[in-house]
Amino acid sequence: MSVISQLDQLVAVCHWIGARGWAPATGGNMSVRQDSAFCLISESGKDKGALTRDDFIQVEIASNQVPSGRRPSAETGLHTLIYRLFPDAGAVLHTHTVNSTVLSRVEKGAALELQGYEMQKTLTGQHSHLDCVPIALFDNDQDIAALAARIEQFAAQTPLRYGFLLRGHGLTCWGQDVNEAKRHLEGLEFLFQCELQRRVLEAK
Fold first, then answer.
1. In angstroms, what is the C-alpha Rg of the chain?
2. pLDDT, tens digit, 9 for 90 and up, residues 38-56
3. How many CB atoms neighbour CB 55 within 10 A?
4. Average pLDDT value for residue range 4-33
5. For the domain 3-203, what is the CATH superfamily, name and number?
6. Which helix (H) or strand (E) holds 95?
């Protein structure tokens, strides 16, 4: 599929995300791989529910340089890190949902472990609700370069699949293409909602 087709799909997914309130107040950022050297990422400060093709900026994956001089999302360095770590990653979605934000603060461990949910099978490679699916958790940091370095160090020792959470911030997830990234986002958000509700009920 051409990068234009992928970008059009990404724009549609951004509108879908916006309609669900998953990237409120211009929060969040989305990108698609253009080729081995470049990705296209959403411009900073744009309403994700109203993005157009022109709101995406070309960024060099290896250096984070922007040939056009425009200002991409503040978390650009996390997107380029994912494209460097995972050569098969074709799209990255970063959202600010209530479920992911609250769970990222409630869970004190190094990962949010999901187990026992049939919907785990929405994640590529998962075939049973009996499996434990760990979603890595990292402390938030306004220094994106430092945060990216911590995530890269973690990934060198521990498999990083589907996505990760930033405490008090939200979810970043990816897939081989836009459709897979969307499926991972929707599946993880369903699982987060179930897990959060389970914890609330068990605490009563």
1. 16
2. 999 999 889 999 999 999 9
3. 19
4. 95
5. Class II aldolase/adducin N-terminal domain (3.40.225.10)
6. strand 91-95
